[in-house]
Amino acid sequence: MAGRPVRPNGQPQPSKVCQFKLVLLGESAVGKSSLVLRFVKGQFHEYQESTIGAAFLTQSVCLDDTTVKFEIWDTAGQERYHSLAPMYYRGAQAAIVVFDITNTETFGRAKTWVKELQRQASPNIVIALAGNKADLSAKRAVEYEEAQAYADDNSLLFMETSAKTAMNVNDLFLAIAKKLPKSEPQAGAGGVAGRGSRAGVDLNQPSQANKSQCCGN
User: Fold this and answer.
1) pLDDT at 171
2) pLDDT bucket at 8, cuts 50 / 70 / 90
3) pLDDT of 27-84, one tens digit each?
4) Which end of the chain has fewer CB within 10 Å, C or N?
5) pLDDT, tens digit, 9 for 90 and up, residues 105-157
6) How would you classify the pairing of strands 66-75 and 54-63?
7) Pairwise CA distance, residues 201 & 209, whole Å
8) CB neighbours (10 Å) of residue 89?
């Protein structure tokens, strides 16, 4: 080894590593897998195959003196997989509930997921609401103000995102990382050793920071 990884500005990589389990929930075709792919690999595929069961990936972000490592479970949105969801959000420290801003039904479904998390997930779970496909705002069916008001009423983080353009994708994960407790290094809460990408992102940099490998392998 040539020494500790460094940030792009030449400073040593943060020494403290905190690991958190994060789950994505939402109706089928709202863009959950696309959000994860954009965050982890900086990529977007116009025709993303539906997730079967769940997919596992990891990604680390540099936050001040701490490296936050997310163990990400991207769950399938089809109704037949709903009964499996508790297996993935059980023990999760964070969840992103995704809806499509062009489809009101997916917003209603997102509210159902939020209620389920509030009832059955960890009491201190950080829940974020993502209004995805913001690049299709001309076809908007869910108003920003309506979603923001719902998020405020339920103490949720809320951002409109676009996996296609990368709008707010890194910012959403950064906001979650900032809200997670980092007083002590976290043991791996996921319980499963995944084979996902482990590249790093410095989210203290501008929005396109998914190209900055600050917390490398």
Assistant:
1) 97
2) low
3) 999 999 999 999 999 988 776 666 666 688 899 998 888 899 999 999 887 777 788 8
4) N
5) 999 999 999 999 999 999 999 999 999 999 999 999 999 999 999 999 999 99
6) antiparallel
7) 6
8) 24
C-alpha span between 88 and 82 (Å, rounded): 11
How far apart are alpha carbons 168 and 161 in whole angstroms? 5
CB 96 within 8 A of CB 24: yes
Residue entry with tokens 């499963």: 192
Contact assessment for residue 77 and residue 64, using Cβ atoms and an 8 Å cutoff: no
- Decide if 124 contacts 180 (C-beta within 8 A): no
Check residue 53 and give its pLDDT. 61
The CATH H-level (homologous superfamily) assignment of domain 16-177 is: P-loop containing nucleotide triphosphate hydrolases (3.40.50.300)
Tell the residue number behind the tokens 């490998």, with chain if given. Answer: 213
User: How far is residue 158 from each of residues 18, 56, 83, 146, measured CA to CA in Å?
Assistant: 23, 23, 26, 11
What is the per-residue DSSP string for 73-106?
Answer: EEE--SGGGGGGHHHHHTT-SEEEEEEETT-HHH
pLDDT tens-digit series, residues 81-115: 788 899 999 999 999 999 999 999 999 999 999 99
Element (H, E) at 18: strand 16-26
Report the 10 Å Cβ neighbour count for 41: 14
Give Cα 115 to chain centroid, integer Å. 18
